[in-house]
């Protein structure tokens, strides 16, 4: 039984307590400012603890962005570069392999790989990144390329989504990250990233990945020009595919960082908005096992609070993160395992290391082995 008492939340509270699904209209109620945030948090926490108990997951991971040169000009992006800009770069195979070596030295279980769409790099250049890393470091899980990139590879190779994903799996791809989702609704998408893969294509890539047995994540970029309706619509579209395939592991709400972007006139979302979006996401996405409070974008304090507002994961050690730091993130570049665990314990949760596929990791320093699969209750 919950302590909440607000009349506006009563019918929703009854449904959540009974484990029933919330509608679009109810999602819009949750978004209303008169709904007290602590009560919303308490409801989301009920779902979070039902699914994942007191545990909070983290992993030991690193990022790789092979190039920032990009043909697209998404207004929210501070990372992209033109080929001739001073900040433009392309990594060589040696540099990429050195990153793999560094990851293994640090005991990483995962490398998160995304980048710009470089108009002078062919399909095989991208495939080769996965191939050489997997060959040299087969123990490292490669979580790579968003649907925006997969769609680009389809154009480069004239292959279907399925064929491209099959090529990538054969090269060593482990799973897909959640990026490129932004906001699906065309009223927003057409204003912030009109050139790139639309919602239909984004879902086609994840559906095909799930059909091939791959797991993937999903995200939502919030706190820019979108309205509450667009966020709820976004969450319901994700919930619909998850009903169909069950292939999403975790949802990550991504707080917009405006510095050095085409939307630099907008303000970064407040911590209160971050917590509201976290809680609403947990309540609406009743079929996604995990919700992640990505500390890089939220900041440590808000990520800690988010562990009581629906989130059960804080991502990982992270290293070489550029997308948020180019856009003004003031969080550190990496957190040590000791610090990650301290952050979780301070938030009153029990830290548990996981791999990308949510299997428990048994670790002794940089040596590790995969244990049992962690199952979140439906
Ligand atoms: O798709 C880009 C977002 C995403 C900005 O799957 C921005 O585990 C805020 O998807 N302010 C990439 N957000 C990051 C991403 C991700 C991160 C961590 C873990 C996982 C996972 C996925 O970052 C992009 C876009 O939505 N983004 N620029 C910005 N200025």
Short recap of the structure:
This protein is an alpha/beta fold and 378 residues long. 40% of the residues lie in helices and 15% in strands. The protein contains 14 helices and eleven strands.
Polypeptide structure, described:
The protein is an alpha/beta fold and 378 residues long. It has one domain: Aldolase class I (TIM Barrel). The chain has 14 helices and eleven strands. The protein has helices at 10-17, 24-30, 37-52, 93-105, 123-136, 147-157, 161-171, 186-192, 199-211, 228-245, 271-284, 295-298, 300-306, 337-346, and strands at 55-59, 61-64, 110-113, 141-144, 216-222, 248-255, 290-291, 313-316, 350-353, 359-364, 367-373. It has a three-stranded parallel beta sheet, with helices on one face. A three-stranded parallel beta sheet has the order 2-3-4, with helices on one face. Strand 5 (216-222), helix 10 (228-245) and strand 6 form a beta-alpha-beta unit. The longest helix has 18 residues, at 228-245. The mean pLDDT is 96. The site of ligand V47 has 20 residues, from strand 5 and strand 6. Residues 76-78, 177-180, 182, 217, 219, 221, 252, 254, 256-257, 261, 294, 315, 323, 327 line the site of ligand V47.
Keywords:
binds ligand V47; alpha/beta; 378 residues; 3-stranded parallel beta sheet; globular; single chain; TIM Barrel
**Number of DSSP-assigned strands:** 11
Specify the CATH class: Alpha Beta
Bound molecules: ligand V47
What is the count of DSSP helices, taking H or I runs of 4+ residues? 14
Determine the fraction of residues in helical runs and give it as a percent range: 40-55%
What percent of residues are in strands? 5-15%
The residue-averaged pLDDT reads 96
């Amino acid at each position: 039984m919950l302590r909440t008492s607000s009349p506006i939340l009563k019918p929703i509270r009854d449904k959540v307590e009974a484990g029933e699904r919330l509608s679009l209209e109810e999602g819009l109620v949750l978004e209303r400012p008169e709904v007290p945030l602590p009560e919303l948090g308490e409801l989301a926490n009920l779902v979070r603890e039902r699914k994942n108990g007191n545990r909070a997951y983290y992993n030991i991971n690193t990022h790789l962005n092979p190039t920032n040169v990009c043909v697209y000009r998404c207004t929210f992006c501070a990372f992209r570069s033109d080929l001739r800009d001073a900040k433009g770069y392309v990594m060589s195979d040696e540099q990429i392999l050195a990153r793999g070596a560094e990851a293994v030295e640090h005991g990483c279980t995962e490398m998160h790989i995304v980048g710009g769409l470089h108009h002078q790099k062919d399909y095989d250049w991208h495939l080769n990144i996965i191939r050489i890393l997997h060959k040299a470091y087969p123990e490292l899980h490669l979580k790579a390329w968003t649907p925006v990139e997969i769609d680009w590879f389809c154009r480069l190779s004239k292959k279907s989504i399925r064929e491209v994903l099959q090529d990538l799996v054969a090269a060593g791809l482990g799973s897909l990250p959640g990026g490129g989702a932004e906001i699906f609704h065309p009223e927003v998408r057409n204003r912030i990233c009109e050139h790139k893969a639309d919602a239909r294509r984004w879902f086609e890539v994840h559906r095909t990945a799930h059909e091939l047995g791959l797991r993937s994540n999903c995200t939502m970029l919030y706190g820019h020009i979108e309205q509450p309706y667009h966020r709820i619509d976004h969450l319901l579209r994700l919930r619909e595919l998850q009903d169909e395939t069950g292939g999403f592991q975790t949802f990550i709400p991504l707080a917009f960082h405006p510095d050095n972007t085409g939307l630099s006139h907008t303000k970064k979302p407040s911590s209160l908005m971050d917590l509201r979006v976290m809680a609403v996401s947990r309540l609406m996405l009743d079929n996604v096992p995990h919700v992640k409070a990505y500390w890089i974008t939220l900041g440590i304090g808000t990520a800690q609070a988010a562990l009581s507002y629906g989130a059960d994961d804080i991502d990982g050690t992270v290293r070489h993160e550029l997308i948020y730091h180019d856009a003004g993130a003031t969080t550190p570049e990496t957190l040590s395992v000791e610090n990650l665990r301290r952050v979780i314990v301070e938030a009153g949760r029990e830290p548990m290391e996981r791999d990308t596929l949510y299997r428990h990791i048994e670790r002794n320093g940089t040596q590790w082995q995969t244990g049992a699969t962690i199952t979140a209750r439906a």
